[in-house]
Amino acid sequence: MKFLKEKSFQKGKRMNELYLYVIEILSGTLRMSIPLLLAALGGLFSERSGVINIALEGIMLISAFTTITTTYFLSQTFSYNSFFINLAPWLGVFSGIVVGSLTATLHGFISITVKGEQIVSGLAINILASGITQYLCLIFFQSSSNTPMLSQTIPPFSCWLTKIPLLGLLLFSYSPLVYISLIILVFSHLLLFNTPLGLRIRAVGEHPQAADTLGINVSKIRYIAVIISGALAGLGGAILALESAQFVQNMTAGRGYIALAAMIFGKWTPLGSFLACTIFGFANKLQISIRIIPTQFAQMIPYLTTIIILTGFVGKATPPKEIGKPYEK
Amino acid sequence: MKKLLLAQIIASILAVLCSFIVIILFITLIGENPLKVTLSLWNGILEDKDGILNDLGYILYYTTTLILSGLAVAFAFRGGLFNIGGQGQIIIGSFLCAVGGFTFKNLPSFLLIPFSIFLSALGGAIWALIPGILKAKRGSHEVINTIMLNFIAIAITDFLVNNIFKSYGQTPQTEEIAIQARIPRFSELLGYFGIYFPKSVPLNLTFLLALLMIWATYYILFKTKYGYEIRAVGYNKDASFYGGINVSSNIILTMMISGILYGLVGVDFILGYQYRFRQDVAISYSATGFLGIAVSLLGQNHPFGIFFSALLFGTLSHMGILFELNTSISKDIILILQGIIIIFVVSLNEIFKRKILSKRKKDE
């Protein structure tokens, strides 16, 4: 009798471990897909309005750096006040969003007003971002490869909701930023497909001439879309940085480009991009968690996934019609 | 047509000047005095043991790989493609080159060196063919694919060097290539003629290979049918298709040649400098791949322009090291300068082009 009890106890323990493991993978997937999701949404707004935004990678990087730096210095300055210490990471995120928007404005200026080659402009910003962040990191923190770890970031929720068996941990244990991002996802869909602004953004990307004859200011709409994309990518970079609580040289590691692939896979829709980002988030999670294969092959997982997905288990992926072409009256 | 060419040259020169102004502003912003910085740089150059020859040698050494990278990007640009996979293609090309160098130790020099060069080109070509084929057959974005392959190349060589081809000890490097596979340095070559050239400068005969490639690219692009088709596809894919050009195979050909040019960068490092493949060093020197983008744009995507552009960037790279040694500014400022130059080139190109086109319209 005691032996049977022992066996079922062991089985219960193993089930519990397995359950926790699955929860960890699933929640890790969601956490890793959030920065990608935000960047993909950013790319979405920009490309729907007709502006190719390769600069997502650079914007995420600059924003990540700005977030960490602002949070660090704010918490240093206000270390005596615990309210401010809790507020600091939020202000850091805000500063990341602002810087992201500004960087995107530069890209918008080159693409929309100067009408230069959009892909090249994006690449230039990525190179600039890499150089500026390394350089400023060296100046502010005396090390060009990483900043010191933040002692205080935005902590995840851990209230009674997480104690709900089965689903509690899975649904309620994330940081508030994750929930905000999911709300932004819903808002993006509503904005793009259910508001006049969204309609104008899409119109400007498909047929700017028609939009122009209707009195829509094509440049203004495109600028708005690009700035939104910068803000979203900035938020993504901020969240990425706060996850690791420090800034590491080139920490985005290609996420901006992966986000673009997710956007293409998602057929330029917010919900489709979310689905794609979940897949890539899973790939990212595998990259750090998998033990069976050598580390170098594990590192390749997200990148291989991107290539395979782009190869076209996608069906016909048609971008907005007038994408990449500057508009002239 | 001549006016457009002149406009492009002026745009490039103006871009460099504007970038310098921005950098000077940047230096002032971070609290350094630009004049003092220039003076300490100048002193750094003068104080060198071998003086001008040392600097000239290093500048030409950097220029070699920049020429090849710039040509690779330019070739792809002309075909309407963006080859951002330079880093990966250089790494794979270097790796294959090194493997050839130490595997076929029995071959004599005049066979082994061309074979290694061929392997280097092959490595780059293969790595560029993958995104090329994917773009041609599936239409997938070559920008994303090439960048993904960069990361994959780093991971693959990491694995191969650490697990299969490892030499002794902790450093992630392969064994040395055969002695007869080494390409002579300028110091040896000029030494034959009794001319002194500092031994420590890694400038080697690959420089001549790079110059050869400039001429070859010019010839292929502007004087052959294949080049014509490639450029046609670059200008307008649909029109070329309707004109009877096989767009798909042209895309593949363009990426392959672009990859070959990038792969040749490996020759400079493996056969002319390092004499072995070291994974951690490879990651840093393959960053030349990205510099190729700036070089190509500044050179207006033309082989001859690229020569001068590469020379400028080579000088900047050398100055970067001087910056690091002689002033308190780190060499990352060169990265920033690159980005700014690209931005100015793109903007000024467009502005000038539109001015000329609108003027032409007025004249008609």
How are the elements arranged and paired?
The complex is a heterodimer of chains A (329) and B (364).
Chain A: H1 2-48, H2 56-77, H3 82-113, H4 118-141, H5 168-172, H6 176-194, H7 196-206, H8 208-213, H9 218-244, H10 255-265, H11 270-289, H12 295-310
Chain B: H1 2-29, H2 34-47, H3 52-78, H4 86-103, H5 109-138, H6 142-163, H7 186-192, H8 206-223, H9 225-235, H10 237-242, H11 247-274, H12 279-285, H13 288-298, H14 303-326, H15 332-363
Helix pairs in contact in B: 1-15, 2-14, 3-8, 3-11, 3-13, 3-14, 4-5, 4-6, 4-11, 4-13, 5-6, 5-11, 8-9, 8-14, 9-11, 13-14, 13-15, 14-15
Protein model, in words:
The complex is a heterodimer of chains A (329) and B (364). Chain A has 329 residues and is an all-alpha fold. Helices cover 73% and strands 0% of the residues of chain A. Chain A contains twelve helices and no strands. Chain A is globular, with a radius of gyration of 22 Å. The termini of chain A are far apart. Chain B has 364 residues and is an all-alpha fold. Chain B is built from 15 helices and no strands. Chain B has helices at residues 2-29, 34-47, 52-78, 86-103, 109-138, 142-163, 186-192, 206-223, 225-235, 237-242, 247-274, 279-285, 288-298, 303-326, 332-363. The interface between A and B is large, with 45 and 44 residues.
